Amino acid sequence: MIINCYFSSVSASESTQHLPVPPVAPDTSHRRLRVAQGILLLFHVTGFLGLAFSKDPSFYLQFVPLNLLLTAVLLFAFQRERNFAFLSFCLTTMAVGFFVEVVGIQTGRIFGQYSYGETLGLKWLGVPLIIGLNWVMLTYMGGVLARYLPLPGFLRAVVGALLLVGMDVCLEPVAVRYDFWTWAYDLIPLQNFKGWFAVALILQVFFNRSSFEKHNPLVPFVYLLQLLFFFGLGLFIR
């Protein structure tokens, strides 16, 4: 009986070796990325259609700060290493970006003579609070994208700064049309782009020297989506 039990157990174990292997679970991170891209695409397409074709774009403009917050939350959710260096980068960039804008509107010496409207929400010292977050997002995206190129650190910072200026070129006509901000004499000065490049370059150098993982799979999608969003709107309002 003992021998029979032994052979029975051996046969059972051998038979289990031939059972089908359970299917591998789908790539959760890839699925999360697709969901995030879908959400962002939905928000941006809705906003684009509303602003480009609606007779009353004010309804859609009230969601601009919310859209920016949502984009930031989803974007930084895919930053895997959120250590002290990353937190320090975010807070420092936010503060620098915000107070540069404060100095800018009060003196006109950085970007030119301009003032903020009501579209971007609550303001302090004449600057919408969400502007600091916008500087963080743009600096972060420019820095991450520039790292795809095999360049030394400073040249990479230059590329990142140029990516920020490129976004601003597409953004400016839309911003003026929808009361993000307005320029003196209704003229966007060349000084604005020079100022953007100078500030962006400093922040890109800071980004490169900060010690955290600088890879985010959502960054290329968000940058391209926003670039197309503002470029497309700019074509419709001209």
Automatic annotation (TrEMBL):
Against InterPro entries, the record matches this protein to: CruF-like
- Provide an example Pfam family for this protein: Caroten_synth
> Taxonomically, which superkingdom?
Bacteria
Q: Which residues cross the membrane?
A: 35-53, 59-78, 85-105, 125-146, 153-176, 218-237
**What are the entry keywords?**
Membrane, Transmembrane, Transmembrane helix
Record-given protein name = Carotenoid biosynthesis protein
* Organism, as annotated: Hymenobacter metallicola
